[in-house]
Amino acid sequence: MQIKINLKIFIFIIIFIVTRQIEIYGILMLFAFLHEIGHLLAGLILGFKPQTLSLNPLGLAIKFKIDLEDYNHKINKANILALKKIIIAFSGPAVNFIIAILFFVSNFRLGGIKNEFIIYSNILIGLFNLIPIYPLDGGRILKEIIHIFKGLNESYTYINFISNASIIMLTIFSSIGIFYLKNIAILFIICYLWYLVINENRLYNQRMKMIEIINRYIE
Predict the structure, then answer these.
(1) Residue 68 in 3-state DSSP?
(2) What is the C-alpha separation between 31 and 121, in angstroms, rounded?
(3) Distance CA 2, CA 107 (A)
(4) pLDDT confidence of 1, banded at 50, 70, 90?
(5) Which residues, 6+ apart, have CB-to-CB distance to 142 below 8 Å?
(6) Hey, which of 64-78, 120-134, 181-195 has the most confident mean pLDDT?
(7) Given CA atoms 200, 144, 79, 62 in this order, what sign does their dihedral have?
(8) H helices of the chain, where?
(9) In terms of Cα–Cα distance, which of 103, 79, 94, 211 is closest to 154?
C-alpha cells in the first residue's frame, strides 16, 4: 500500500499552533483517523484491497483497488460498485456518530478530555463529511446515488453543480460564523474546501471536453 502525505497539513499545523488550537486540531485528527478506519473496515469487508493511504489537512483518505467483476453486476444505470462505494463512504461518518452516541450514553473517559467535547467533535466531523461537496463523503454518496438513477455522465454534471452551490452557501454561513466567533481556523477550512472544489471543477471540465471529443469522433 502506497502512503502519501499532503504537505498542506504542515501549514494547518502551524496555523493551529499560532492560534493556540493545536490540541483541538490533534483531537480532531484522532477522530478523523477513526473515521477513516471505518472506511477501511467497510472496504475490507466488501472485498477491496487498500491501494493508497493519504494524509491531508482534514484527516486521512484511503483509495481502494477496484475489482473488475463488480462492473459486471448492473444496478439500474450503474453497477454493484456504485452501491459498495456508497456503503464505504457512509461508514466513516457512521463511526463518528457511533462514538458520539457511546460517549453520550456511557461514562467512558478519554484522558482529561471532556465527554461533551468528544461528542461535539464527532458529530461535527460526521456532519462535515456529509456535506454534499465532492470529494467529501457526502459528495461521493450523492454522486453514486445519481449514478445509479441517471447514469455516470449525469452524475458528474449534477454533483459538480451541487458542489459549487454548496461551497458558496457554506462560505456565506461560515463568514457569519467567523465574524461572531472570531475563529480564523474556520477560514482556512473553507479555503481548503474551495481548493478541493476548484480542483474538481478542473477535472470535470477536462472530462467534459474528452466526452465532447469522443462524441464528435463517433458522429
Answers:
(1) helix
(2) 8
(3) 39
(4) low
(5) 132, 134, 158, 159, 162
(6) 120-134
(7) positive
(8) 8-18, 22-45, 80-105, 115-129, 137-150, 152-181, 184-218
(9) 211
- Is the pTM here over 0.85, yes or no? no
Q: Are 143 and 155 in contact (CB under 8 A)?
A: yes
Q: What does the buried/exposed string (b/e) look like for 48-71 if buried means 16 or more CB atoms within 10 Å of the residue's CB?
A: beeeebebbbbbbbbebeeeeebe
For residue 6, the model assigns a pLDDT of 61
- The count of residues in the chain is 219
Cell 499545523 -> residue:
13
Q: What residue has cell string 459538480? A: 160
Is the pLDDT at 131 greater than 60, yes or no?
yes
Average pLDDT over residues 83-109: 90
Nearest to 96 by CA among 138, 49, 45: 138
